[in-house]
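Progress against Task 2.4 (sequence-to-structure conversion) is shown through the following example record, which the project officer requested during the mid-term review.
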Amino acid sequence: MDPIEANKIVYAKAAASYDETEPHFFTENKSKVKKILQQIRLQSGPKLLDVGCGTGFIINLAKDLFDEIHGVDISPEMLGRVDCSTGNIKLYKSEAENLIFEAEYFDVVTAYAFLHHLENYEKVIKQVFRVLKKNGIFYIDLEPNKKYCDLVSNYKNYHNSQNSEVVKNEIRTICYADKKVEETYGIDGNIFNMSEYTRSVFGGINADDFLKIVKKIGFSDCKVFYEWYPGQGKIMHQQSEKDAEIIDNYLREIFPFSECLFKYLRFIITK
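Structure tokens generated for the chain above:
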């Protein structure tokens, strides 16, 4: 089974509860992403394409910012949950590796929590380069940081009852996600791993390797951001956003030593 078919199976079952179970739908994350989209809109034009749009996470945050929004996904179940009531949204059941749009049509392309589902994300990046206008922006977010995944995976078989719940949860999430999916959705763990091919096979995305690919394809600039250290959400909710920010600022101050302590990668790429 290839990753495309695996994703169709997984999200046919997961679509109904996806918005309620995925952490990136939490208020604090939606607020962060909304601000990013607002900043991008100030620097770009009104046409946006969201590849791997799912149930419309990006679309819902962007629909009041862009005049024309197009969403692409292979799962009809996920597409069926996108709110298109604003009238400026069009959806397409299609593979991102073969975009149907004409060259240099979009001002902005987004891909949120999507590239790690692909067997070869370079193909999609080439398509995005083709459909983006000159100086257009490609915004990628919530991609698993390989350096972090490798760090956690080193403790896959490390079981200590004195570990904090944060540590236990990160080990479960990184190393045993397939088991959780089996229990939650009744989906075979091997199918789930195939649906997140880049994460399960390659252990996530290495920022340095990614930059080389983007440069080779022809983009003029790529900025990398490291996001969400383990337990950040817990600190925001149980202590304060200020405490969470202090820790975040410190970890950024000690870069590059702390690269492996952030769970996700964000890229802002300019054609």
